[in-house]
Amino acid sequence: MWLKAWHLIFMVSWFAGLFYLPRLFVYHAQTEDAIGNERFKLMERKLYRFTTPWMVLTLIFGAWMLIDYAWLAYGDMLWLRVKLVLISLLVLYHLYCGKLVADFANDRNRHSHVWYRWFNEIPVVFLFAIILLATLRPV
Questions:
Q1: What is the domain partition of the chain in residue ranges?
Q2: Any idea of the CA torsion for 123, 115, 46, 5, to the nearest 10 degrees?
């Protein structure tokens, strides 16, 4: 149970960053002054660097549980495979956030604040799906 506890702690920390970073993008896309622009660049860079280790630890502890017992118990079930695909997509989302941080840092933002508002909702969908799959184990 310790593995699961640490996995959940790191996952919650990772998701906190995934919820807040795109919200910073929304505000940054609306910023028109140089001081605000630089402030958001700093906040985004620091948050991304702070959040990434939580992702790595979530993946390490999740893989540990998978290797230790979960694959033997649930490996032939569709819900686990779907969950792993969703986690892979979530990692890609995280990495894309890193690209957006770099784009903002280099003053190359190509999206509106409205686009970021929609982009900000994506982790919520992943959270719901992954949690429901892991707890209900539907097939």
A1: 2-136
A2: 0
Q: Where are the alpha helices (DSSP H) in the chain?
A: 2-30, 34-65, 71-74, 78-105, 113-119, 122-136
pLDDT means per 10 residues in the chain (139 residues)?
A: 94 97 98 97 98 98 92 90 96 98 98 98 97 90
Is the CB of residue 103 less than 8 Å from the CB of residue 109?
A: yes
pLDDT value, residue 115: 98
Q: Which residues contact 126 (CB under 8 A, 6 or more apart)?
A: 86, 89, 90, 93
**Burial annotation 96-130 (CB, 10 A radius, 16+ → b, else e):** ebbebbeebeeeebeeeeeebeebbebbeebbeeb
DSSP string, 96-113: HHHHHHHHHHTT---S-H
pTM for the structure as a whole? 0.93
